[in-house]
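Q: How would the structure tokens look for this protein?
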Amino acid sequence: MAALAVGLARRGHAVRLIAPLGYESLVCEPSVELRAIDYAVRAALMSPDGSRLLHSGRNILAGLRAMRAIGRRHLHTVWHGLAQGTQDCELLIGEVTAEETGCAPPAN
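A: Here is the predicted structure in token form.
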């Protein structure tokens, strides 16, 4: 997403990137407006629920339960940050990364 934001900004588009805390270094283009949501993904993954998620292995149900617990704990903060950050936007693009879910891409 950061690369897409930078590419669009370099082509003259007004771009606002909304990301959790800790992702500021991904945007090196001064014309990209960055708004951080008061949510630290790494801290959530270091919580007991995060540990359960990261160690759920092939147990999909355990992983989903841990993701649900993390999501419920941070839902208000994340949605409030998104609501504030997306005002006056014409296009929204979202992505969930492997780091956020704790799931690595499938091995070939």
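Residues 99-108 have pLDDT under 50 and may be disordered.

Residues 1-37 form one domain.

Upvote if useful.
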